[in-house]
Write a structure and sequence with these properties.
four-stranded antiparallel β-sheet; Hypothetical Protein Ta0175, Chain: A, domain 2; alpha/beta; Rossmann fold; about 260 residues; five-stranded parallel β-sheet; binds magnesium ion
Length: about 260
């Protein structure tokens, strides 16, 4: 298909918390793109928003937000007013949404790969070894485990043991949130399946800032990481500009489009 796929992580790549913006001051005019009740939670630079909307509406481009957020937290984000995106990858690859609904073929592949005996063991491990903030370990979207812990070092010290005991799972910490994700559920595997089975694009551009983005970054023909990320993976270009670094990625995409799909 004569299309360019632009698959991008959301948090810390396109959208940012107030705390992040305070820690990484940036020029620009940041508008709220996520609210819970009356509280503003996430922001996007207005110029990034304008350019992204233009790209997403370009018939040569398929823009795909790719996030570890679960369905509920993904649905809270409105990248621009009335944004209706054909595809999205959420729950770290657990769901591929098409017009807002999970593609059943992919969900079947994901569900079949989850080992529930292991899942229960890991839940017990989390509950007994960590002082959890919330009383329960949540089985988010029936795909991955999430719990909030008090002492983050407890988790960091246990990761090597967890990796060894449950090698079919990936363990990640985001602040006080600890995640256990089946190894087959990745942003990269979902994007690859979507591209190979539905989109068959001519070119794939990916961007992301975190460890959970690495596989997706490797899958891209061209990949970008914001300069605010501490990671420097091979064959991935660093996009400068902090919370406005998506402008660099999109500049690249505009040029690529003129070159391959004029
Ligand atoms: Mg991120």
């Amino acid at each position: 298909m004569d299309k360019l796929v632009y698959a991008s992580d959301l948090d810390q790549t396109l959208i940012f918390s107030r705390r992040f913006l305070d820690a990484h001051p940036s020029e620009g005019d940041f508008v709220c793109v996520e609210r819970r009740n009356d509280t503003d939670l996430s922001y996007m630079d207005r110029e990034v928003q304008t350019n992204l909307k233009r790209l997403a509406e370009d018939s040569r481009v398929v823009f795909i937000p790719v996030t570890t957020r679960d369905l509920m937290r993904y649905n809270r984000v409105e990248l621009w007013q009335g944004a209706a995106l054909e595809y999205a990858i959420v729950s770290n690859g657990g769901f591929i949404l098409h017009n807002g609904n999970p593609i059943p073929e992919w969900s079947e592949i994901v569900t079949a790969g989850i080992d529930h005996t292991m899942r229960k063991e890991i839940t017990r491990y989390f509950e007994t070894k960590f002082k959890t903030r919330s009383t329960e370990v949540e089985f988010v979207d029936s795909i991955f485990l999430l719990c909030k812990i008090d002492d983050v070092f407890e988790f960091d010290a246990a990761v090597a043991e967890l990796d060894e005991m449950y090698y079919d799972w990936q363990f990640e910490r985001q602040g006080h949130k600890c995640l256990a994700i089946p190894a087959n559920v990745t942003k990269g595997s979902a994007l690859k399946w979507l591209c190979e089975n539905k989109l068959n694009p001519q070119c794939v551009v990916t961007s992301g800032d975190g460890v959970l983005d690495l596989q997706m970054l490797r899958y891209g023909d061209y990949a970008f990481i914001p300069d605010t990320s501490p990671l420097r993976p091979e064959n991935v270009q660093v996009a400068v500009g902090g919370a406005r670094s998506a402008l660099k990625t999109m500049d690249f995409i505009e040029k690529k489009l003129e070159e391959i799909l004029p």
